[in-house]
Design brief:
By secondary structure, the chain is mostly beta strands. It has a single domain, classed as Nucleic acid-binding proteins (OB fold (Dihydrolipoamide Acetyltransferase, E2P), Beta Barrel). The protein contains 1 helix and 6 strands, in the order ββββαββ. A hairpin with a 5-residue loop joins strand 3 and strand 4. The longest helix has 8 residues. 15% of the residues are buried.
């Protein structure tokens, strides 16, 4: 069975943009900054800026109520959209968000030994999965 589910927890990167579509619907777009587990060669934090869009009014209202750098959790699906004429196609990847909620930042986590203080709220720390499936 195929599955296309995305859950992101991170920070809103900038102000939200809204566009009216010819159908009369409104597309709300923003980016979420998500930290990676590893650091770069100089010890800096590596992040991804992930484009998101929603056509859901409730999810859009939540995102509009946030300021840049506020924490947010979204669920949705990964989408690939193709634009332009046949000779010059543009492929765009984004997360189509179905639900969004603000996440309150918890107290900072203790820093690993020899590392800078952790800034990630406890609610945003990925949980380790020891086994996904047991071998038969």
């Amino acid at each position: 069975m195929d599955r296309n589910e995305v859950v992101l927890m991170g920070r809103l990167s900038a102000a939200v943009e809204e566009f009216s579509l010819p159908s009369g619907d409104t597309a709300t777009k923003w980016r979420i900054i998500v930290r990676r587990r590893r650091r770069d060669r100089r010890g800096g934090i590596v992040t991804d800026s992930i484009p998101c869009v929603t056509y859901n009014g409730e999810a859009a209202a939540v995102v509009r109520s946030l300021k840049p750098r506020d924490y947010i959790e979204v669920t949705g699906a990964f989408r690939c959209r193709v634009f332009g004429p046949a000779a010059a196609k543009i492929w765009k990847y984004e997360v189509e968000v179905g639900t969004a909620k603000a996440v309150t930042a918890a107290a900072p986590l203790p820093a690993p030994e020899g590392d800078r203080p952790a800034e990630t709220p406890a609610a945003l720390v990925p949980r380790q999965v020891s086994r996904l499936a047991q071998a038969s």
